[in-house]
């Protein structure tokens, strides 16, 4: 649904995707770090919550 998200949700989505790229690059270059992946999962869940909350509150 283009245009269905507000600026904050869009920013969180971009931040989440950017963090995924950084964590993946770190893992490839220096090896895995469970805390980085845990942090990314938490960030992803927060972003998902924002998408669902903002999407569900539209009339």
What does this protein structure show overall?
This protein is mainly alpha-helical and 59 residues long. It has 2 helices and no strands. Helix 1 (7-30) packs antiparallel against helix 2. The longest helix is centred in the first third of the chain and has 24 residues, at 7-30.
Q: How is the biggest beta sheet arranged? A: none
Report the span from N to C terminus.
14 Å
Query: Could you name the ranges where pLDDT drops below 50 across 5 or more consecutive residues?
Result: none
What's the β-strand tally?
A: 0
Number of helices: 2
Strand content: under 5%
| Rg value | 14 Å
Give the ordered list of helices and strands: HH
Overall pLDDT metric = 85
Shape verdict: elongated
Share of residues in helices: over 70%
Protein structure class = mainly alpha
Please name the defining characteristics of this protein.
59 residues, 80% helix, mainly alpha
Protein topology:
Blueprint lengths: L6 H24 L3 H23 L3
Helix pairs in contact: 1-2
At a glance:
The chain is an all-alpha fold. The protein contains two helices and no strands.
């Amino acid at each position: 649904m283009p245009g269905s998200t507000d600026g904050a949700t869009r920013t969180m989505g971009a931040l989440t995707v950017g963090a995924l790229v950084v964590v993946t690059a770190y893992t490839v270059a220096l090896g895995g770090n469970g805390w980085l992946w845990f942090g990314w999962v938490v960030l992803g869940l927060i972003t998902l919550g924002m998408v669902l909350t903002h999407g569900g509150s539209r009339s």
